[in-house]
Amino acid sequence: MKMKLKFLLIVLFAGFSAWSQVEFDAVVSKEKLGVNERLRVDFEMNQDGDNFRPPSFQGFTVVGGPNQSISKQWINGKASFSKTFSYFLQPNATGTLKIGQAEIEIDGTVYKTIPIEITVTGAVEKPKDPNDPVAAAEDNVHLVAEVSKNDPYLNEAFTVVYKLYVSRETAVNGWNELDAPKFADFWSQSIDEKQFKVYDGSYDGKPYRYVILRRTLLYPQKTGELTIEPLALNINVEAPTNRRDIFGMRITRPAKITVTAPTRKVNVKALPEDGKPENFSGAVGNFDFDVVASKTKLDAQEALDLTLTAKGNGNLKLFTLPKPKLPSALEVYEPENEQDVRVSLNGMAGSNSARYTIVPQQKGSYPIPPIRFSYFDPATEQYKTLSSDEIVIDVENGPATLATSDKADKIPVEETKQFAYIKSDAKLKPMNQDRFFGSTAFWSLLVTPVVLIPLAILFGRKRRAYQNDVKGNRLRKADKLARKYLGDAKKSLGDQTAFYLALEKCLHNYLKARLNIQTSEMSKERISQLLQDRGVTVETTAAFLKLLESCEFARYTPSSSDAMQHDYEQASRVISEIDKQL
């Protein structure tokens, strides 16, 4: 009897030990798959738990799940339990992706799975079922990348156009990008399609319809063989099968497929070294070059602008303009660079300018030597150099130029009086002649802190009061904004939308600062009443309200440049008049 009891206890203890050992694992259907295949992931546990937390599945799209299944068995007196959470994943890109840790809480303890690495390759060929809509759709939908030039020069423009070809029996219900090309070795800009238009064409000798998804302008920044990364799409389609209805028409079924444009390579040629000018700075295209001075006759300390402009077609954003070599008597400031560039499938077109502000210091005549600009023309495969004309700056009034060489030695210093402020007699005294203790400097240094400390305390109180004056600070800020927006309106003359938006903000902030009201309280009657209560004349008030009406009408009706100029001058005048009358 005792032996039976011991045997039963041993069996129960062994069964309890087997039951108490927790197992929580992640199992995948495959560790290597194509970007057009799907992956199944099962999170399995041998004991029931709570608070299951799946990984983020970064790099994948969850196309199914979570599906939960539970299994309980009792075989030959041995109990087993299994619980599984299943997910179906679609990879978003090629490369090595990782499925992170999942978590489950069992009897108060948190268990985690081991991360799994998945290798995703390009699209693979899969066995096809003639009645499978996915297989039918993959045969009838194709993504193509067309490159306008396979052997461009460095910094020469070319385009890549992505077209989606669809057979006439297949309908596309929508798509989204999975893997977009990065164009790492190119300067790139996408040309947005305002609306998708369907064209008739052919693919592999068969009639197809196609739509242009994206056009991208590229300027290669490296030489040699460069790779244009593929574009991958997830597409929802209605694909035909081999089955037919009672009328003999093919039955279509919905399917979701992944298509990828083939990888394209271009061989980028280096610019030739033969004949390359010394001042060449990377300009590639076809350009004109101008150098213009805003004035050629002026007085000393007056400013003039010297503008260098390259305009035409080419890599306008990717090169620097030459620097002018000017006489030392002309003070030159750092240039202001301006680019007016339009980007289309033909490349960049427009202008690249550098404006130098120059201030002559002395009277005289100063020639600005010709400035040379060089560029490479890929059409002729030659370098071309353009040169400006010499510009002479005549400074009519101002201090004379310092004489040079021998003449300067012959002119007495007293006669020129240019260094009269320099004392030739220093009148030095011995350091031990006067005592510092008890001197004026001693008492000044002693008294100064006593005077400065009360002033610092007073200044600190004033500063804190200024910062704590919420209402005053708000009004000062509104006044500052009004001046700023008035300046923005002046800069936007000619652009109706930007001009009247800035002018309206200027008027509203001006009212906030002067009348202490908010935008929501700005009815015409209240504005008129408040201005007249403050002593503003009826005529000035009416002019201000008319400006507000002009800003409102400009939203719906076109306005000429003359009208905008008139409204700007009127706003400046009315604000000045209100300031005076207030």
Automatic annotation (TrEMBL):
PANTHER family: BATD, PROTEIN BATD-RELATED. It comes from the Bacteria. The chain crosses the membrane at residues 436-459. This is Aerotolerance-related exported protein. Coiled coil: none annotated. Keywords: Membrane, Signal, Transmembrane, Transmembrane helix. Residues 1-20 form the signal peptide.
